[in-house]
Q: What sequence folds into this?
C-alpha cells in the first residue's frame, strides 16, 4: 500500500484546494475490499487511468464507470469497490470551492459521482505528465509542484462572489462556535448566512458542522486501539451533551452506533490510514 497527502504551496491554488493525495493498492494487498467513505462537505477530483474502473454505492444510488471522475460533496456514507488493484490521485477542494469553478454541472451538487475528461477540464495532458513522475519515482513534492503549476492558470481566473466569501467566513467559525453564534460573530443575520451557505455548499451550517466534527472524531479514534476507546471521553472532548447525543449523531451520519463502528472499523481512514505525507 502506498499513500501520501500534501498541501499546495501556490497561494492561488490553496485558495481553492485543501490538499493533494495519492492512494495505490497492489495485487498483494489484502486490506478491506469494500471500505466506506464518510460524509464530506468537500468535493474531490479523482484522477485515474482511462481503463481503471470505479464503483460507489450509497443508500439510494450506485455510481460506476472508468477513469477520472468527480466525487461531489456527500451527505451519506458511500461504500467503495476496492477489490482490484488501483492507483488514484485526488485533488480535494475546500468546502464550497466548487461553487466558483464554473463546472458544467451547476453547483451545488451533492451525493453524486460523475465522469470527467480531466485533460479537457485542465486543458493539459495531466495523465501523461503524472505517468512520467510515477515511472521515475519522484518524491511527493514533485507531484505537488506539478499540480500547482497545472492548476494555477485555471484557478487564478476564478473569483469568489459575496455568497462564497460569506460562506468561507462562516466555515472558519464552525469548529469552535455553535451555529447560533455565527451570525453575531460575523455581524450578519443568521438567515442571510444560512441562505448563502446553502447556496454555495448545498448544506446547512448544522450539517456541515456535524460532518467536520465527525471527521475530527475519526482522526481521534484512528490514533487509539479499539480496546482503548473511551466513548465518555469522546462525549466530553467533542462537546456532546451525553452519550445518547453521540449515538444519535453517529447514527445520522454513518448509520452505525459507536459500538458498531468500533467493531467494524471499515471507513477509509481505518483501512488506509490518515494519508500522512511520507
A:
Amino acid at each position: 500500500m502506498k499513500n501520501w497527502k500534501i498541501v499546495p504551496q501556490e497561494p492561488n491554488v490553496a485558495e481553492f484546494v485543501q490538499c493533494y493525495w495519492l492512494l495505490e493498492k497492489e495485487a498483494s494487498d489484502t486490506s478491506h475490499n469494500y471500505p466506506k467513505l464518510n460524509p464530506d462537505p468537500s468535493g474531490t477530483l479523482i484522477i485515474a487511468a482511462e481503463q481503471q474502473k470505479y464503483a460507489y454505492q450509497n443508500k439510494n444510488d450506485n455510481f460506476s464507470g472508468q477513469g477520472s471522475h468527480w466525487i461531489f460533496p456527500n451527505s451519506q456514507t458511500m461504500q467503495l469497490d476496492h477489490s482490484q488493484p488501483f492507483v488514484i490521485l485526488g485533488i480535494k477542494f475546500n468546502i464550497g470551492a466548487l461553487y466558483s469553478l464554473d463546472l458544467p454541472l451547476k453547483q451545488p451538487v451533492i451525493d453524486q459521482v460523475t465522469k470527467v475528461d480531466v485533460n479537457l477540464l485542465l486543458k493539459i495532458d495531466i495523465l501523461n505528465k503524472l505517468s512520467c513522475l510515477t515511472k521515475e519515482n519522484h518524491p511527493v513534492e514533485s507531484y505537488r509542484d506539478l499540480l500547482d503549476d497545472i492548476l494555477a492558470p485555471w484557478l487564478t481566473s476564478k473569483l469568489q462572489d459575496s455568497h462564497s466569501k460569506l460562506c468561507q467566513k462562516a466555515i472558519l467559525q464552525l469548529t469552535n462556535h455553535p451555529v447560533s453564534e455565527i451570525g453575531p460573530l460575523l455581524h450578519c443575520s443568521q438567515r442571510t448566512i444560512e441562505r448563502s451557505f446553502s447556496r454555495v455548499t448545498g448544506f446547512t451550517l448544522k450539517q456541515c458542522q456535524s460532518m467536520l466534527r465527525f471527521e475530527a472524531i475519526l482522526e481521534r479514534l484512528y490514533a487509539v486501539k479499539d480496546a482503548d476507546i473511551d466513548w465518555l471521553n469522546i462525549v466530553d472532548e467533542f462537546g456532546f451533551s451525553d452519550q445518547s447525543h453521540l449515538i444519535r449523531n453517529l447514527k445520522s451520519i454513518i448509520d452505525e452506533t459507536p459500538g458498531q463502528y468500533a467493531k467494524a472499523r471499515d471507513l477509509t481512514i481505518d483501512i488506509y490510514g490518515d494519508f500522512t505525507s511520507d
Summary: The radius of gyration is 19 Å. Residues 51 and 66 are 6 Å apart (CA to CA). The longest helix spans residues 205-222. The chain has a mean pLDDT of 92.
